[in-house]
Design a protein that fits this description.
With 137 residues, the protein is an alpha+beta fold. The protein has helices at 51-72, 121-135; strands at 14-17, 21-25, 35-39, 76-80, 90-96. It has a single domain (14-135), classed as 2-Layer Sandwich (HIT family, subunit A). It is built from two helices and five strands. Strands 1-2-3-5-4 form a five-stranded antiparallel β-sheet, with helices on one face. A hairpin with a 3-residue loop joins strand 1 (14-17) and strand 2 (21-25). It starts with 13 loop residues before the first strand and ends with a helix. It binds zinc ion (ZN).
Length: 137
């Protein structure tokens, strides 16, 4: 769809992709290691996908959670699929830390701290390497 943000070329770094899905680094100074798994095709609801594609999606989600755990060792991982503003299937994979700016509320709530975080070059390299290693076969 021409007016859909996720159908346009991503302005955020693509860490990995195949012909159906891509993993994006959501550069955000509030949250380290915030990734988004996006379906490349414009589909609105998960139940519109075939069981095989759903299965592939959940398998990738699981691998991403393991990688994020390895790289960032978060206190919790939040998964969110909303799509009210952008009705194109995507998942937010959000490592959470007890000292992040929103904990224990969702990252879309009012901040309760004012820390700044950066993903290091080394962390981004690790994410890319692990995604390629575990998802390309
Ligand atoms: Zn779209």
């Amino acid at each position: 769809m021409s007016d859909c943000e996720l159908c346009l070329t991503s302005t955020l770094p693509i860490l990995w992709q195949n012909n159906r899905f891509r993993v994006i680094l959501v550069n955000n100074q509030n949250i380290r290691g915030y990734l988004r798994l996006e379906l490349i095709e414009h589909v609105k609801e998960i139940h519109h996908l075939t069981p095989a594609i759903q299965s592939e999606m959940y398998k990738i989600m699981n691998i991403i959670e393991n990688i994020v755990t390895d790289v960032y060792n978060p206190d919790k991982i939040n998964l969110a699929s909303l799509g009210n503003k952008t009705p194109h299937i995507h998942w937010h994979i959000i490592p959470r830390f007890t000292n992040d700016n929103f904990f224990p509320q969702s990252i879309w709530s009012e901040p309760v701290r004012q820390n700044k975080f950066e993903n290091s070059i080394d962390e981004i390299d690790q994410l890319k390497q692990q995604l390629h290693l575990k998802l390309n076969h």
